């Protein structure tokens, strides 16, 4: 039986997307998304924020670069992927990231954090599905990511 590798996040961008054209003629965008959880311990409110590195490819990356900015709330579906490469000093490096297949823009572009407002009257936001933009380009793990 094969496994399941699916990640779903709803969070806010901690910075504007980093968008780069790579050698194969494709576009890649890096999103840094914060998710927070809170709880009460010993009568005190506790909060923890996790930061997630999300990679978006192709036309969807271009759309994210054009329409997203720091603070914008997004819904992301994708898969968890670990990459390995050698740095300039010959040391093996690893990174784990989410490769997005769907990005949905939540809230209006100018909405304040936590306002709960949506970018459409139906409450759905702008939905872009990665499958609409073709397959993820092949990536040579020996090449260095431009970030």
From TrEMBL:
InterPro entries: NA-bd_OB-fold, Primosome_PriB/ssb, ssDNA-bd. Residues 109-147 are annotated as: Disordered. This is Single-stranded DNA-binding protein. Coiled coil: none annotated. It comes from the Bacteria. Homotetramer. Keywords: DNA-binding. The keyword Repeat does not apply. Residues 109-121 have a biased composition (Low complexity). SUPFAM superfamilies: Nucleic acid-binding proteins. GO terms for molecular function: single-stranded DNA binding. One of its GO terms (biological process) is DNA replication.
């Amino acid at each position: 039986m094969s496994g399941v590798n699916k990640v779903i996040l709803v969070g806010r961008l901690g910075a504007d997307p980093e968008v780069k054209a790579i050698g194969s003629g494709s576009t890649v965008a890096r999103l840094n998304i914060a998710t927070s959880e809170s709880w009460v311990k010993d009568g005190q409110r506790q909060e923890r924020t996790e930061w997630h590195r999300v990679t978006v490819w192709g036309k969807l990356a271009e759309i994210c670069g054009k329409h997203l900015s720091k603070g914008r709330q997004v819904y992301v579906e994708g898969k968890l992927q670990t990459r390995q490469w050698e740095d300039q000093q010959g040391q093996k490096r690893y990174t784990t990231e989410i490769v997005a297949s769907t990005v949905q823009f939540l809230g209006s572009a100018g909405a304040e954090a936590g306002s709960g407002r949506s970018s459409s009257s139906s409450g759905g936001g702008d939905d872009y599905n990665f499958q609409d933009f073709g397959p993820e380009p092949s990536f040579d793990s020996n090449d260095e990511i431009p970030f």
